[in-house]
């Protein structure tokens, strides 16, 4: 005879159709003799019967063609749909091609460049201007934009967009056609003229020398006075080619006066020099001049000016620097506010710039209108700039972002980001939005619940404010959705919200009772106190709600809290309940609630509690009408 | 209940939409060459089966629909990895089970719903219709709740074997486990369900209450 433990295992195996005949016979013998195992076998047979009769999920509810379309849309929306390939050999072929391309690139890179064509040019001609410039060019070291001029846009930025005069393959980079001695002498004259007699520069010009280029070379002079004087002269007489030496001077110079001269010269050269103004905008002393120059931008120049300030704001190290730059951006109106939103919403920028950008946006009166108009005229979804604006608008608590966030939460591709922002949104609006999403059932419930959980954690009052908003809107289904969400969410704030919803007359009595029952096993003393107050306001017609409240009250505050509520303890007015009736009700309810042990029992408990509570409710109702 | 072998395909005529004479193998081969129409036919062929399995796993129609769509989108992206040694349906089920596991990982915890509260507020047994249909309704509700209390791995094996009627080899391929482990999982699931539902199974009208309230 087999043991019960083995028999019980075999019962399950047999039901699965996997027990052999010999074991089946031994099992049958055991079952004939053992009542416990027979009972288990019978229960398992009923389970099997229930499983067989369990209705299939309703396949008819699924529109197959709609699903095919939805799947096709997901495939199309995937960032980089991978075309299925059955040939892994293709990978090897690709690798071989890449290796060949690398080899060819190496061969070409190591070939000697053809000798440059020699062109004789006359001094003073436009071509010679470029040649003269190159005659003074390296080996003198130029500051590397990335290392010396700081994080701001360096001279290369200009070089990329503004072609230098005389630049081209026909120039002779070796400068062989130039009389180097004459050039050195001219440079020395220019150097002297800068510190002694500026009129000599005019004389040089009269000799046909490209004076501007000579003076530009003087910005690299070791003497800070010469370099500063050259910068000042170039501020008045320079051209766009002067930007590069001036920005190099600004990045390199240590003397404040020299830096100031370089910054002022760049500012004076106009919009073509703005991309080199980064170091000036980073320097608190040079910033006012640079900002004044940028602020004078025409509407066509504004994008460049705003970009420079935005970049500088991203680099700001102190709150005062950031505030100054943020204010300059706001002065540009919608474009500036938009840039500021970009900084405030950027995931890559953190700390002072982001914090001060948000502070600036909070102060800017036009922020909300600008954000609203951006959302209104920007139909592109999920664009990085929109994400940044939404991020900033969320941090600022701008209500105009909520409809957009709701819309994005409905789309699978942008759902996670939108829900995360809704969760972070400070204010009741996010909860109201989440109730809408909950009701529509287009967003997975658990995602909404997770967002609501975070939103509720902001502060205790948020749920109360959301209830007020929904009540003011007369949105009973929104309140019901909020109740459903709070039933799912754990936490003190959700419990407090449930307590408030128990008292919310816009909900039906049944819905209010759900909320009360949701507090069972998780309510605290505060919730119990509110429930006690609510209990005394109910009428005999609301007896089932009263029973649910009493049960939750007992669960949160114990028998004492329940009895205090029934007696009207701590109330300013007289509840009017008969003392004996209150005591009896209290004793009977406490006994009833203490005896409940299972969830199923709880249904009966509520029915019985209703019967017990009814006389007490009738007595306080009589007092209410006939005090 | 004797399991009936199933490939998760929908027998309700959805396959009729693809070209006659086109076997599943041909459709898969064409889809692997990048033929979207062939893949659409595969979706029509298998969507209901995958959706049904997912609905039993996750409980919610909407979640199941979402996961089923994602299953096919992922399947398209990974179609090159499919080898015809296993059936296409088991491969799809495996993708779906991975997504279901992720779904539960994200969800992290069980939920308390308004439906539960509504059940608590239902009138007591004295006022309830005592018909067997109602009893079965309650048993099914309990069964669904008990099924959702099971760990996902046990639930997946149980749903595939007992409710979808798959063979153990197929359960094992779909769940990425050995057939022996699949057997163990199904047995453990059945044992837990039996333990959770025994009061209702032994007393069809509901378990007697300890306080003698019934």
Descriptive keywords:
heterodimer, A: 627 residues, mainly alpha, 33 helices, elongated, B: 214 residues, 0% strand, disordered N terminus
Structural features, described:
The complex is a heterodimer of chains A (627) and B (214). Chain A is an all-alpha fold and 627 residues long. Chain A is 68% helix and 0% strand. In chain A, helix 1 packs parallel to helix 3 (35-53), helix 17 crosses helix 19 and helix 24 (428-440) crosses helix 27 (476-488). Chain B is an all-alpha fold. In chain B, 64% of the residues lie in helices and 0% in strands. The longest helix of chain B has 24 residues, at 179-202. Chain B starts with 23 loop residues before the first helix and ends in a 12-residue tail after the last helix.
Please give the largest β-sheet of chain A.
none
Q: What does the overall shape of chain A look like?
A: elongated
User: Topology as H/E string of chain B?
Assistant: HHHHHHHHH
* Largest interface summary: A-B, 74 and 78 residues
Q: Note the total helix count of chain B.
A: 9
Q: Sheet bearing the most strands of chain B, described?
A: none
Question: Portion of residues in helices of chain A?
Answer: 55-70%
Low-confidence parts of chain B, pLDDT < 50 over ≥5 residues? 1-21, 108-112, 116-133, 210-214
For the CA atoms, what is the radius of gyration of chain A?
A: 41 Å
Strand content of chain B: under 5%
User: Whole-number average pLDDT of chain B?
Assistant: 73
What is the first-to-last residue Cα distance of chain A?
78 Å
Determine the number of helices of chain A (DSSP H or I, runs of at least 4 residues): 33
Please state the average pLDDT score of chain A: 75
Helical amount of chain B:
55-70%
Number of strands of chain A: 0
